[in-house]
Amino acid sequence: MALRFKHIAPFLATNKNNWSRLLSYFGLGLGILLLLCSLQLLLNIQRLLGNENPRKGGYDYVSIAKDVTNATMGQVDKNLFNSEEIKKLSEQPYINAVSPLIANRFQVDLTAGNIIPFSTSLFVESVDDDFLDTLPPNFRWNEGQEFLPLIVSSDFLQMYNVFAPGYGLPQVSEETARKIRIFITCSGAGGIRQTFRGSIVAFSDRINSIIVPKQFLVWGNKTFANTTEVKAARLYVKLKDANNPVFLKFLDEHEYRINKDKVKFGRVKSILQVAITGLGAFGLLIVLLALMLFSFYLQLIIARSKESLLLLLTLGYSPGWLTKTVAGRWIPIYVVIVICALIATSALQWGFYWLTASLDVSISPYIHWSVALLALALVILTAFSNYRMIRKQVYAI
Amino acid sequence: MHITLRNVHPIYFSEDRSVKSNIWGQDMEIHPAEKIQIVAPSGSGKTSLIHFMYGIRREYNGSIAYNGNDIRRFSADELAKFRQQHLSIMFQDLRLFANQTVFQNIEVKRQLQPYHPADKISEFAERLGVRHKLEMLCSTCSYGEQQRIAIIRCLMQPFDVLLLDEPFSNLDEDNRKKAMDLMLEEAAKRNAAILLADLKQIEFFPADQIFHL
Asked: Cβ(B196)–Cβ(B167) under 8 Å?
């Protein structure tokens, strides 16, 4: 028959201080429950708010600009992104690509011919093709080409259709708008002037601008404004998650402006993450306090059983065996405590699943595997810390 | 098991104690199944010698070796294992668990390295006249009864050497002989050596060698 704890239990004062022991069990359970729930909630929030953000091709595309303030007003250099700032942004690990929205540095005027009596000065911009949500095959321009393709924000067409009736202008559909021949006249210093025939080849839901092929704008800026310098008022950023708190923090630190609506979930997520991390830290604190209390309880048992332990050692019981046996005595209790906390966490997760069922989001009714892993790690941590304490005490007798 | 004592001398004794002693400062060999009696008055170091040989005290010069292995070089766990399998002791101060029953006091030793089945406890208790005390708390037993309980306890394990420190000090002649017979029988079964330390020579202990401290 193998020697077990029950054989030496009568010689140890384990039945004393039941309140202290029960209190430490309760504290340990409560702390572990808080820790497990915090981790599960963090994972739920990641999933919930990650899904709320509309994504295309697995990436988010957001435009950022510098805040024009009273202090920087009129100082163009301070309100534009220089190549160093663009480089720094593109070096951030969570950003996949950055493309400046290059604007025209020359005069552009648009007329719609005889169909719609409409004429306006215009701004055009260009961006890398990779950042466009719709890229028709004819969105190309080579030097000498008379036809200039345009991609226009679908918001602009909507805005036009809102105010057109008030000015006695006809409302137009996307199909009709694509058929309208427009004339774009570019003029620059020294009286250089050239007119291009153009039409809208696509509408963009992503970019709020009038986009021309990049080759055209590079050529135009060089020809009409005699510049090749890249200074952008806006940058387009391609990244996995526009709600990434680190990205939002970077923007805040550099006073860059972004469409707040696009990242409002990120802000909420950041706040919730801080709150839940705080809850987790509180849970960890309780776990540590409970471990300390339990450690005091064990030290008290050892102190009260010191004479018996000394005699057991004298009779031939090995300190190694005594350490393993006394420390092992509490492992089943740690396991039960952690299993109870896991069951409670699972129940809460089930409740969370039901509460969010109507929100059309996919939250699992079961706890995440990492929560179970954390529970296992806590059993090991508790067992190990108590083993070390008991070993120290027994070998010191 | 061969025991070798080389120039053993307690550090708290003056050097001149070695002059009159057969053991302190001398070399000594104990062979398997040998019966050694150490006779010495109080204060001459009988208990010290027994404790040195059991490895619970280390305040001495020289060396004590079992089969050539110095007992002071054993780790705590190695020493525990050695005691479980090779070395049994009966302390002068008995060292019983006062608040446990007589049976528990003996069983805690037996279960550690069982040499006998549990029913031997009753048999030995019967032979030494403490059978009726088995379920009683040790603290309720007389010192003579406790001495017999300690004797039974030390016979529950395997051993090559049995160390006895004034084992009969509170026993009457009849119980002394019964206890001695039992210990001699058990030592013979194991081919073990006995080292018995007492104030005077025990006439019914068939000593092969007698030493004076």
From this structure: yes
**A125: which 2 tokens?**
């911009």
In A84-121, which positions are buried (b, 16+ CB within 10 angstroms) versus exposed (e)?
ebbeebeeeeebbebbbbbbbbbebebbeeeebeeeee
CA nearest to B88, candidates B117, B116, B54: B54
Q: In what order do the strands lie in the sheet with B209-212?
A: B87-90, B161-165, B193-198, B35-39, B209-212
Q: How far is A314 from chain B (nearest CA, A)?
A: 8
CA dihedral B3, B164, A316, B126 (to 10 degrees): 130
- So what's the ipTM on this one? 0.92
User: At A380, which helix (H) or strand (E)?
Assistant: helix A369-396
Does B118 reach chain A within 8 Å, measured CB to CB? no
Residue B126 and residue B136: Cα distance in Å, rounded?
15
Q: Contacts of residue B111 in chain A, CB cutoff 8 Å?
A: 1, 3, 7
Distance separating alpha carbons of residues A27 and A32, to the nearest angstrom: 8
Cβ atoms of residues B203 and B173 within 8 Å: no
pLDDT tens-digit series, residues A239-295: 887 777 788 888 888 888 876 656 666 667 667 777 778 877 877 888 788 778 778
In this predicted model, what pLDDT tens digit does every residue of A198-231 receive, in sequence order? 989 999 887 888 999 999 988 988 888 877 777 7
Q: What whole-number distance in Å separates Cα of residue A293 and Cα of residue A20? A: 8
Burial A281-290 (b: 16+ CB within 10 A, else e): eebbebbeeb
**How many other C-beta atoms lie within 10 A of the C-beta of residue B92?**
18
CB-based contacts of A261, cutoff 8 Å, min separation 6:
none
CA gap A100, A214 in Å, rounded: 11
> What is the tens place of the pLDDT at every residue in A91-144?
888 888 888 888 888 889 888 766 666 778 888 899 888 888 888 888 999 988
Residue with tokens 């929100």: A359
CA distance A30 to A318: 36
Query: What is the separation of C-alpha A345 from the centre of its chain, rounded to a whole number of angstroms?
Result: 24
8 Å CB contact between A28 and A294: yes
User: H or E segment at A265?
Assistant: helix A264-304
Min CA distance, B97 vs chain A (Å)? Answer: 7
Question: Given B81, B97, B157, which is nearest A308 (Cβ)?
Answer: B97
